[in-house]
Records
---
Amino acid sequence: MTVLLPKSIDEATRMLADTSSATLLTGGTDVMVEINFNHRKPESIIALRHVAELQTWSINESNGTVFIGASVPYKSMESGPLANAIPALAQAARTVGSPQIRAAGSLGGNLGTCSPAGDSLPVLSALDATIHLASASGTRTSSFADFMVGPKRNTRASDEIIAGVTLPLCRGRQGYAKVGVRNAMVISVASACFAVQDNTARIALGSVGPIIIRCSAAENYLNQVIASGLAITDDVAEEFGRIVSSESRPIDDHRSTAAYRRHAVGVLAKRLSQRGTQS
Amino acid sequence: MSSHEIYSLKVNGVEHHVKDAWIGESLLYVLRERLGLPGAKGACEQGECGSCTVFLNGESVCSCLVLAASAVECDIATVEGLNSDGSLTDVQEAFVTEGAVQCGFCTPGLVMAVHHLLDETPSPTEHQIKEALSGNICRCTGYGRIFAAVDTVVAMRKGDK
């Protein structure tokens, strides 16, 4: 095994061009577990700890966007300016592991692993995040919808590094909720991010399908209600949750049953549609 | 860096050369087995239990999830280095006086987590204490004595006790 320690994105992409089979390592909360248990023995690791560019974030009020570098830890999103800018992301960040894990884990890691249970991914989906990728031959962007294509599968090319994510500032209200087998230190059984952005409802689901699921039928239903100037009453929320449940595609596995997941994600959607943080 | 290359880690302010190590070893393993610093404990090795908590550039992290070779040029602090003269810190004293130590396995990780909490939040609420220690599992105490120890340190630092 070799370990490479680039100091910039340019250096990292050049190293990756030479060894495209290398494993990219950020916070280590996934990869190191696999290495510790001998489930994975990479020939080479490019550890991004010393790439300062990946640890920067910025809020651009004039064009209404937030850029978050791929290695910015969840801890930085839990409170402070990023939490005010994107409340749903702060709520999702707060559900990740423990304080120690949140000091290490990042959006780049969640996107690189692309587990359907990745806590931040429903937020990136609901808010139509743009993923920034860099390689030795240049940079490109991808929508989240085009990026995640299956469980732990994404369209990152083997010579590409995830540089960061651009998200819109909250323009309406939004929220995130998750169900697990206990209240903390848990991988989600079902999760959902709800947002009303510029009077348009969005809902994205985690852990209830092979990818993060955007519920277009439920969104259409709620958008008709919003367009007709009606309030999201208990009955509307109930129906919204029912449609969300019907659009989920969960499976039975060691963490839960499909039936429970389908029910739980509908409850989350129903609650979020009436709650949500204003900004 | 390749498989058995020597690299250097700065732990508790001292540079240590890591020799005869596999390059894929975790910081926890290197601290304990290569550098003779057994304060951080290894239990789950997947970031769940917090027994291996150390500070990396001032951040409280699980050393089992840090690739040791990637921690070069970082400031690493372990429970051994909390007081340079080897005496107990106020947090450690409070753990003793409040009976927050039973089998003791989780104690070094908890002591680090408490120091980190009180460095960032000198007067934490009950909720903040519970959240800050949520990544440190103790199977003996039921946590009551540990929370009492935190309260004692907060009171002592304020001069109330």
Note: The mean pLDDT of chain A is 96.
---
Amino acid sequence: MTKALKLAVVGHTNVGKTSLLRTLTRDVGFGEVSHRPSTTRHVEGARLSVDGEALLELYDTPGLEDAIALLDYLERLDRPGERLDGPARLARFLDGSEARQRFEQEAKVLRQLLASDAGLYVIDAREPVLAKYRDELAVLSMCGRPLLPVLNFVSSSQHREQDWRDALARLGLHALVCFDSVAPPLDGERRLYDSLALLQEKARPQLQRLIDDHLAQRQLRKSSGARLIAELLLDCAACRRSVAAQAVLEQGAIRELHQTIRQREQRCVEALLRLYAFRQDDAKAGDLPLLDGRWGDDLFNPETLKQLGINIGGGMAAGAATGVGVDLLVGGITLGAAALIGAVLGGSAQTLRGYGARLKGKLKGQRELTVDDAVLRLLALRQQLLLQALEARGHAAVEAINLSTPQDTSWREGKLPEALHKARAHPEWSSLNPGATLEDGDRQEQVQQLAAELL
Amino acid sequence: MHRGAMYRPLRLCSGFHSAMEHRVSPLNTPTPSRLQRLWLSETIRLREEHAGPLDDSEANRRAQAKGGALAERIQNRAWLLAERDGQVSALQHWLHGAHLAGLLLVLLAILSGTSLAVAALGDGLRPVNVFWALGSLLGLNLLLLLGWALGLLLSRDSAGALGHLWLWLSAKLARDAQAAQLAPALLLMLQRQRLSRWGLGVLVQGFWLLTLITALLTLLALLATRRYGFVWESTLLGGDSFIAMTQAIGSLPALLGFSLPDAELIRASGDSALANESARLSWAGWLVGVLVVYGLLPRLGLLLFCLWRWRRGCAALSLDLSLPGYSLLRERLQPSSERLGVCDEAPTQLHQPHAGSHTEGSQGALLVAVELDPQRSWPPALPKGVGDAGVIDSREQRNQLLDQLSRFPPARLLIACDPRRSPDRGSLALLGELARTASATRIWLLPPPPGEALDSARLGDWHRALEQLQLSYSDSAPFSWLENGHD
């Protein structure tokens, strides 16, 4: 069992230390984030594990606010005729009374950094390089721990990355990572841990494990997400409502269908949010454009007929074969009755009954309402966009994602995937229909194929 | 596929059971096998997918405490939940039923094996027609073997019709919602490794092997205790072709040491049943050999093959962790990040900087800027008589200015701050210290550079902080105050 690498996340107040922790731990509820300075006033830890093994401990610390005065104070701690090194000077400071009064917050940070293997120095890249930041780095460097500067808010238009690079280089800090905690780059964590491994060579194996695990988890989340979307699409494509042919009833049925589809989409959004460990209100599906339903005659859709044929044929054949087996076994005394019963039993009585009900409805003048192709395309598009947005979203982000309808109408065109065409003929595949059989092997196969197409 | 529709569900059960190596003793406290644990995990997953998440905090905690890899934790959790909700006992009932069904099946195999042999040899009063005997011993077997092989080759997954029937039956028979997902879960799990065909295969082959063994034993017993004469009859076939056929069929068993009637004997048996002992022995040996080689051995081979595939498939069975249901459990059972809690408490009160004013002997007016962006042009055009102390940023600049101000305290001091910085304690302490050197102090919160906007939340923070310091502030330059002492 390797010892977890301890990291102190330090920096000026209000630069996003807690946000960085939220994003690195994928925990939207960690600590408290606000625009006020000194929001975090305590030291709080979080642990990252892979397969149950703790690999990294991160500690959120209060912001440094009074570094100029602290450095001044620290330099006056030397008694005449002695010259202390950094840690010795800090030890004297931490023993003294100012460490419990004016510099209490700063003392917390320094104590935590001293207890850690390395520090992440978080920088608000929009800030100019002021003297107080340089003094902060001077104070922190007295701890004798490697520091990795992390530039936050680099996706802002006003960032001064180059100024900071130059300034840090002058202070001897050449390794540096850009990591926006609200919109982290896809390989941001890898770069962060790689740079850390350069500073802490002995921790490289565990950091590499962390990197590999993150990659694997990302793939897994993505394929799970695609599956959720595929389920949504299949559910909607196979959804079917039978309505008597009267204008009023039809309007009502269309509205009800819309409501059902909208709720189903919201369920998918919530599942995706859960999958990516975001809050339930971090994304909202906007209104679906009110399109007319699709009055499909799927009753004679080739897929329906094919399925009917295969089911009945296959079932009858299997049933008859079984019956013949019984006949032979008992020396033919059932006179083929077993074969007949077998054929009827195996002949997918369910399929026949289901189809018969639909046929009866048709003859009685009922119409079948299904979801328009365009709505399916829109759902696919929106959910895919959401999936991408969630992938690129840091857990420090506070603004909700809004799923709107794209302005251009290209989503109305194009071919639907084969699996959805198939689903049209299988009302029993939709959880929105009564009597659904979701564990059907064929359905699972189609979900898988569709999910692969969505990736 | 080929036999008694009414036994289908049972057969599937005992196929499952036979691979479990009888480790389960139903109705006792069970030690779950790997397959059972996987099955229950899948059942719980389906149940949660249908009925929404279960109340699982206790199960999660216990599963997490037990440790292990994620798949193991999921199985532990599923087991705990299944124990609580009754799926475990449903499973035990089900296995018990499977045992009984297996026994019934064995009984049926023995019965039909015996009757096959008895029907083949007849009552011994009439001579045995060798090809009729052969046909009734092997005909059905070979026919159904062919059917099984075709089904295996042609169907994508042979759980198809049988599986559906079983699902339908178990849905009809399921007494409560807790157990409703048991059957679909098993099928789904087996389908993923295409295992159901091999499980069924084990069952079918096992059944037939047992039937044929019983038939063989009965045959031997009958042959040992009764005297049978053997004849062949044909209207169309001549003696020669009959001899060729008999010897062709018998050549393979002959390699294993079973007797093969010679041409003379066969020709003679065409007329009437031979009374001599060697002819009877020869025919009986031939019959037994054919039964063993074309009936027993293929079934045995196929049984071993199916068993091997089943075992291999079972070993490869695992939870598909990419399923959304399991992905969600990952964070709950094996969190990739956990909070460690607060390890250094927040103080009840933060150190507060304070301001004040200097009352005696102050004169003149001074503008000073604190921590300005170097890109901003500074100072602005100043009225006459107002001194400019520049921009202070570093410690040295601070100390220098404070020294100077304490020697020559200004009457009016205007401090310019950029409200885009955050109002931290260090800056506020500096403002307070500067204010204490002057008789009157005001803060000028600078407007943003063109094209940028101030963050209103941060501006609010500045206002609050300055109010606490009791310093007056404005967002425009109070130059007239600075120049004249009044607005």
Note: Chain B has 17 helices and eight strands.
